[in-house]
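Subject: DNA gyrase subunit A

B.,
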Amino acid sequence: MGDLLNNDEIQTINIEETLQNSYLDYSMSVIVGRALPDVRDGLKPVHRRILYAMDKLNLSHGAKFKKSARIVGDVIGQYHPHGDTAVYDALVRMAQDFSMRMQLVDGQGNFGSVDGDSAAAMRYTEARMTKYAGELLKDLDKNTVNMIDNYDGTTKEPDVMPTRAPNLLINGSSGIAVGMATNIPPHNPTEIMNGLKALLKNPDIELSEIMRHIKAPDFPTGGIIFGKKGIMDAYETGRGRIKVRAKTHIEKKGHRDIIIIDELPYQVNKARLIENIANLVKDKMIDGVSEIRDESDRDGMRVVIELKKDAMSEIVLNNLFKQTSMQTTFGIIMLSILNQEPRIFGIITILKHFINHRKTIIIRRTIFDLEKAKARAHILEGLKKALDIIDQIIKVIKASKNVEEARDNLVSEFEFSQIQAQSIVDMRLGKLTGLEREKIENELLELLTLIEYLESILKSEEILHGIINDEFDELLVTYTDARRTEIEDDYDDIDIEDLIPNEPMVVTITHRGYIKRVPLASYEKQKRGGKGKIAVTTYEDDFIERFFTCNTHDTLLFVTDRGQLHWLKVYKIPEGSRIAKGKAVVNLLNLMADEKIRSIIPTTDFSEEKGLVFFTQKGIVKRTNLSEFSNIRSNGVRAIVLDDDDALITAKIADQDIKYLFIVTKLAQCIKFDIEKTREQGRSTRGVRGIKFKHEDDEVIDANIIASDEQEILIVAEKGIGKRTDAGEYRLTNRGGSGVIAMKMTAKTGKYIVGCLMVDEGMDMMALTKAGKMIRVDMQTISKSSRNTSGVYIVKGDDVASVSRCPKQPIDDEEEDENLLLDPSELV
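Prediction pasted inline below.
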């Protein structure tokens, strides 16, 4: 024990440094010896060892199959000291036509399926190499690559394969090492060979020229690649992302559409995809699907998705792309090993390294063949010389005691080399005939010609390039194949709008800031005077402030009382029932504390031919080009600069057809002036005066835009009284004046105006009361009156909070019109 504790034998080490070195050794072992492919042959060590073991078993293309277990046993026993399952899994993948663009193993038996079925046990399956795999091993016996010791030093294995085919790009590779990963997609062999020929011809070729030949990855399972940006990024830098989508078509079955999936993205499990779609349909995440079944057979893939009668195939299909693996993103990382070092390469660099590899292989092969030819020529020269003096040679041989003495005597007396003398001693008597002599001379002549040619290869790079080019041509003829994966030049991300039907909606927002959307069809049409239906359930201290109608695909511009503008799509507003409270708008928009939304404007585009007109409580008007609001930040942008005591009331979109602006005040004052009186201003400006109030306590309550004097204006007072009046009856004045009377105010009308609308034959009016009731009215049934009158009752029994227009809806034939008509005595 004392000897074991001898201080002289104890070494002090730094544990941090030791762990770093040990982990570095481990990680480099995984990187170089297990997980990543070599840039030259595109093989990981396990794949290279499987092919080498099969070569040693004489399992070339055309040979008899051997049990996979025998192959795996040789691999793990001699070259790859890892688990047999891992080796067999690698062998299985090399035999799968849905995993490899060009299979390396010809399998017999169950080698798995695209549904994710496992291969049969290795004792049941058989394998041999494919013809393409033979291209990877060609000339292996001609000292073309370095042979290194196997794991226990008992035999040799190739450091790299002398492949004639650029396997790294043709079959791709994927693997996770330590701190890095590779994911190289497979490519079309014809395109790769054409790209190599172009690079060989022009070493300074540009990426754009290469991509005329190598258009994109080509997956064995087909599919569709969208967009070239990710491809160009990957080919230039070694990193990129491409979107791959299933190939589908639509068939008809009576009045229903049927979606047929013909091809899937690379490495997508068909059975798992079908199960995922079924679960999404069950959970109502995908609507419109009635049945899913798999009709795939030996002739190809066919997954059938039957739709319901009212389902739109485009919407369902886009939903499937959005929510399932029918569309995937393939992240390209072209990482591989060069000189025992992992590096990320662009595609041109990979092609150059392969060409350099081929040069090395051809040079080493040429040297091997040259040495062999020279050795044979040397022997033939000795035999030819011996035939000329055969009698003397026979005499010397007969006088010798044994073979060794005869060989030495020939060397000393006739100046033969040891090799030549040995071949002469071993020569049979049949070589003395005239015919055999002629054969020796002819063979020698052929060898001298071959030697001259082989030496020319080593001296001329042009001849070397010609040989490489000829090899590429041979591979093109042998392995030419049509592209399987289609390419679409431009790709736009699937907009969620494609997943949602474009339907009319009613959007409501309460005083406390709760917003929701409800399908317009949820509200029944009534005539004026009706009592309406509950549109929303509010808190006791809450009420509906505003509502409007729009479509789900429209863009909403939220303009707040502080002059900020926010951007939102209608479909992003939560859909609720007719009596639901909705969702707090602060959860949808990035609003400041106490900031209130004053105007919500639906629009379909941000055309420069349109303007956004702002109206403030103090009578300020401002017009800004709509295009200035196309790029809204998450916290919005300032749309108008407001005075400290002012607030925004409303905003409207005005196109080139708009002639006038119309402002109405709370105390029934109104003004109409030419829109050109307000020039377009930038976002961060104040605007100009639109109206001058006659009373200090007056303020702007609503405003509108007018295209012509023939249009009609509907003005509604707080007690539900309203009237239609031609816009021409409102005198055109200068901007900033006091205007004229908008409506004759009485006790029945109430003190205040609540809003004004432009009458449209294709639109109804919807009025919202402070109690939360909503009523739809055909504006054509409202009496037409002159400017200085009051009108008729539109809503009875409750004060009106706001009014808006909505699309017409046919009147139910069963409605009793006479019960909804007003008595003439109700006219004010």
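Confidence is low (pLDDT under 50) at residues 810-828.

T.
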